[in-house]
Write a structure and sequence with these properties.
- The chain is an all-alpha fold and 407 residues long.
- The protein contains 18 helices and two strands.
- Strands 1-2 form a two-stranded antiparallel sheet.
- It is globular, with a radius of gyration of 21 Å.
Length: 407
């Protein structure tokens, strides 16, 4: 596993999972003093108890990893559940984050295999794994992005299977997985709406299966909230309070794409080839309702995260808030990989496109490997001063985070 850990927002995931396992309640009262010392960072008080302020879905996904880590600690006298220093992530968090991201990469490979031969599918999956924020963000800690990618990709896989095999039964699974994505990260409600419309348009009479699946996930979520927090509506569903309009929105829209510190096109220019992928799907007649749904998700997600007051995602590396939709953009790279590896597929200026694609892979590989391997890329957030207090640094091309390895 790469050494750089990004542990800001995920600081209470493992303690919350330990509370679920050992105290059967999920609250953080047992570490109240530590939380108070951090001014209740990422913690909220509900009915007199302290809770992790982020979505419950990530905590629940962490439970089996923490349980396994507890067994290993007891059997082999290790310290997988213990933090090496205050607020530092315990080793089990790194293991869980890497495993969840690896699972997302595996699902993407299965998606690719449905349209590509083995070698191109493997190469494109390698690019997704090591030349995208899947490496530099999702696998760096147990925040929402890795689990979100896994749930969205799994839902996309189920929808593709339902379409190709004309199997309406898989729609129930797709609905459950989409519901899980929302439980993990509330902004995935955008995907839930888009996929629901897609199911209604393409499956019509069988749409109820998808809706029942999503409804089942919703009911389970409400029940878990009642057990976990003692309320049905959790404390983290207040994203609307963080939205803004006007000049800040325009800056967020631009920043999430081209900022030297947070721009998606800067840290993963590979996704620019998604435009070519869309054109190739249209020219081949393969462009359909699912593609429209994915484009809608990407655009709406971009608009929403750019509307956040801290559109840069706080202390992070690269396009953190755009990480969730990166695998959806890679979906459109599948026809590009197919066209570049099949001699019979017509594509204008193939040599130029192949060269640009290869250069984009190399740059994306460097930038994301730097974020995973060099601590200086993360320290950039606080040196020479805190980026949250000095957001003008987000536009400083003389000191981008990805060049910190050379300083």
């Amino acid at each position: 596993m790469a050494p750089v850990r990004q542990f800001t927002d995920s600081v209470w995931v493992v303690p919350s999972a330990k509370s679920v396992i050992f105290d059967h309640d999920g609250n953080l009262d047992e570490v109240r003093d530590e939380i108070e010392a951090q001014n209740r960072f990422q913690a909220s008080e509900i009915n007199g108890h302290l809770y992790y302020r982020e979505p419950i879905g990530v905590v629940l996904l962490a439970v089996p990893f923490v349980a396994a880590g507890a067994v290993v600690d007891r059997l082999f006298d290790t310290s997988l559940l213990e933090s090496p220093e205050p607020l530092a992530p315990p080793p089990i968090e790194s293991i869980a984050a890497a495993a969840i991201t690896a699972a997302a990469v595996t699902v993407f490979f299965l998606l690719s295999l449905r349209q590509l031969r083995d070698k191109p599918a493997l190469l494109l999956t390698g690019a997704f794994a090591f030349a995208s924020p899947a490496l530099s963000t999702a696998s760096r800690g147990l925040w929402m992005h890795g689990p979100s990618m896994l749930a969205l990709l799994s839902a996309l896989w189920a929808l593709q299977v339902a379409a190709e095999k004309k199997s309406a039964r898989v729609l129930f699974l797709a609905g459950c997985l989409t519901g899980l994505a929302v439980v993990i990260r509330p902004t995935n409600a955008i995907a839930a709406l888009a996929f629901s419309v897609y199911a209604l348009v393409t499956h019509r009479r069988e749409t109820w299966r998808y809706l029942v699946g999503g409804g089942t996930a919703l009911l389970i979520w409400l029940g878990l909230n009642r057990w976990y927090y003692g309320v049905f509506w959790p404390p983290y569903n207040n994203f609307g309070q963080q939205l803004t309009v006007g000049g800040s929105l325009l800056q967020g829209l631009a920043g999430d794409l081209v900022s030297p510190a947070r721009g998606l096109f800067v840290y993963c220019p590979l996704v620019l080839f998604a435009v070519l992928g869309i054109l190739l799907r249209r020219s081949s007649g393969a462009f359909g309702a699912l593609d429209v749904a994915l484009i809608a998700i990407v655009v709406c997600h971009w608009l929403v995260v750019a509307s956040a007051h801290a559109w840069w995602g706080g202390v992070a590396y690269g396009p953190r808030l755009m990480t969730d939709i990166v695998p959806l953009l890679f979906w459109f790279l599948i026809p590009v990989a197919s066209a570049l590896t099949r001699s019979g597929v017509a594509i204008r200026r193939r040599s130029l496109v192949t060269t640009l694609f290869g250069l984009s892979v190399l740059w994306s590989l460097y930038v994301n490997m730097a974020g995973a391997l060099h601590p200086g890329t993360f320290v950039w957030n606080i040196e020479p001063n805190a980026v949250d207090s000095h957001p003008e640094r987000l536009w400083d091309w003389t000191d981008p985070p990805f060049l910190r390895p050379f300083r």
